[in-house]
Design brief:
There is one protein chain. The chain is α+β, with helices and mostly antiparallel strands and 141 residues long. It contains 4 helices and 5 strands. A 5-stranded antiparallel sheet has the order 1-2-3-5-4, with helices on one face. The longest helix has 22 residues. The radius of gyration is 14 Å and the shape is globular. The N and C termini lie far apart (30 Å). The model has no long low-confidence stretch (mean pLDDT 94).
């Protein structure tokens, strides 16, 4: 079931405000987060409109976690972060999604919790597309 007010369900302009769709995996949609203070940051949103991970069946949950793992592996291959932070909040956006935030020892916010939307760094359309293509290439393997 889709929620007509949900960015992840409806995509288009709603999601374009903060993300660029990279691809769809078995149980999820992957978006490049436009705010790139953490180079390579993405969102992995479940395809079903559920608010909590507890609303998924065991099989759905396992498949979703495999998708998250696949994206994290791609992130490590492309960006070589020192650590990846995983955040699933959804206080205001009631659609299950994880932020995968690569952290770098000499980089922004190392040693602390990542800001949800620091609005510090945006990129050119060309650079966004380069990153999206790198993710697509690695995730299609």
């Amino acid at each position: 079931m889709k929620d007509q007010n949900c960015a992840y369900c409806m995509e288009g302009e709603l999601v374009a405000a903060f993300g660029i769709k990279i691809c769809e995996l078995e149980s999820s949609k992957v978006y490049l987060f436009k705010e790139q203070s953490h180079p390579g940051r993405v969102i992995v949103a479940h395809k079903k409109h559920v608010s909590e991970i507890t609303e998924l069946t065991s099989e759905e949950r396992a498949t979703y976690m495999e998708d998250i793992n696949k994206v994290a592996c791609a992130m490590h291959e492309i960006f070589n972060p020192d650590k990846v932070n995983y955040g699933a909040y959804g206080d205001t956006e009631h659609h299950l999604h994880f932020h995968l935030v690569p952290k770098y020892k000499d980089g922004y916010e190392w040693g602390g919790v990542f800001a949800m939307n620091p609005s510090v760094k945006t990129l050119s359309e060309e650079v966004y597309q380069e990153i999206v293509e790198k993710y697509r290439e690695v995730l299609s393997k």
